[in-house]
Structures are given as structure tokens and as C-alpha cells.
């Protein structure tokens, strides 16, 4: 969106509240995430006051360009449902150390190409899609493609909180057929750490993909889309009645 973002969260680990940061269009400048102690931290960073005027300002992304240009990858395995924060996702399991997968829900199809350093028997990953209205603590329409580690090898725990991962992804490419230009990429590594920008990129055709070949212990990666025009009318903002 071409803006700097400063986010300061209340630090209260008993209520699972932590995480503050200063973010620029081209990079995460500084952030703090700590669920182990009760001490806060002051974050300081120097920012460009007009980031859109800078030569490092990221080019515009067509978030569905690549995903709409390819057919969904065929698979003999069945999809399965799973919940993430009260939203029912459609998942498919990553059973091998390398592969191509697609999973679809309504109008959203998510595509993943990946390569793990090794496929561990004690860790299970799944590719998930959600295309729908989120209705808990607010109502807003989301389109999400995500690759995540399940809490245990039991597929019923896919979407449950998890804090560490030993499986490392050497290559990955995640994309989706989004109907919005408001898509936010994220990669969270073991220990709930943000992936350094040098290890991934967002291509102009909408792929979140690895670069430099550094194996990453991924907890979750996602393309988080907001479809504002599908939000329900807010109180007092409904259609006007003619007198």
C-alpha cells in the first residue's frame, strides 16, 4: 500500500498478547515478539517520509496473474476441513518432501510448489484455502492461501497454534486466484520469527516464493486477502430509504 506502518501491541502473555513492529514497504525495519517474559521493549527505526517516491518502492503486484494462468495441480488424495480462528478452511496434506498441490474453496484456488530438506514423520504440513466471511469479533470478507504446520501428525490439529518447527523448506512458491488487490504476504518461522526479506520475494505475477536457497523452518506462510466490497454493511451505512 506504499505506507509505513507502526504497530504497538499490549504485552500480556497470559492473554496471548505480544508483538510490535515498524514496517516499511520494502522491509521489516524492526519488530519484537516475546511470549516468554513480561518485559516490553521500545522499538526505534529510521523511515522514509515519502516511501512512494523512493527507487526501492516495490512494483505493483497482480496477485492472481500467475495462479489464473495455470490449471490446478491434479491429486488423488482427498481434501479435508480444518478450523483457523473460527473459519473453516479446505486443506490438503503435503505427504512427500517435494511436490505440487492445489486446493480450492469457492472462487479461490491456491497453488503450491515446494521442496523440503527432508520429510519428517513427526511433522505434518498442509496447504489450505479460505474464501468467505469471517464473523467472530467483527465481520469481514477474507481470501486466504496458507501453508502451515499442523500441531501434531493428527490432521484434525491443522490450524491449531504451534510454536516450533524442524522441517525446512528449500524451495516454495505460493499463489492464489484472488479477486482483490489487497493481499498481504507473510512468512513465520520456528519460534514465531519473521523470515528475512533476503530469503523470499513477491513476484509481480503474485507468487510468494523462495530465493537464495536458504532452508527455512516454516511455521506458516500465507497470502492474506481482504475483499472489502464483500463486507456486510456496517451499522448506519446501509442503503438509504427513499422518502
TrEMBL record:
The keyword RNA-binding belongs to this UniProt entry's keyword annotation: no
Gene Ontology terms: biological process: pantothenate metabolic process
Pfam families to which the protein is assigned, alphabetical: Vanin_C
Keywords, sorted A to Z: Hydrolase
Domain Vanin C-terminal: residue ranges: 82-231
Gene3D superfamilies: Carbon-nitrogen hydrolase (3.60.110.10)
Secretion signal, residue range per the UniProt entry: none
Mitochondrion recorded as keyword: no
GO molecular function: pantetheine hydrolase activity
The protein, known as: Vascular non-inflammatory molecule 3 isoform X2
Source organism (scientific name): Carlito syrichta
